[in-house]
Design brief:
This protein is mainly β and 82 residues long. The protein contains no helices and 7 strands. The protein is 0% helix and 43% strand. 17% of the residues are buried.
Length: 82
């Protein structure tokens, strides 16, 4: 069963900041588990939005300045302030 889908707070092209260290949860096979993929404070651009099917929570693919594309939940990112 799929939960009710929430509208995403962030949209494609918006600049965001990692609010916490984003670590490898095993989805990057060539990177050690628990290695930091994007550190708190790193900036990136939303390149895609999706949904966690079990919870209906939005998930984002963020391309960080390092060039790495990392998945993040809303609680893990925030809009970059000018």
């Amino acid at each position: 069963m799929t939960a009710d889908i929430r509208e995403p707070l962030y949209q494609w092209g918006q600049e965001v900041v990692a609010a916490v260290d984003l670590v490898n949860d095993g989805t990057f096979p060539d990177v050690a588990p628990e290695m930091v993929l994007a550190a708190s404070g790193d900036t990136g651009i939303v390149v895609r939005t999706g949904v966690v099917e079990e919870t209906g929570e939005p998930i984002y693919l963020i391309e960080f300045q390092s060039g790495r594309v990392v998945g993040a939940l809303e609680s893990e990112i925030q809009l970059k302030k000018d």
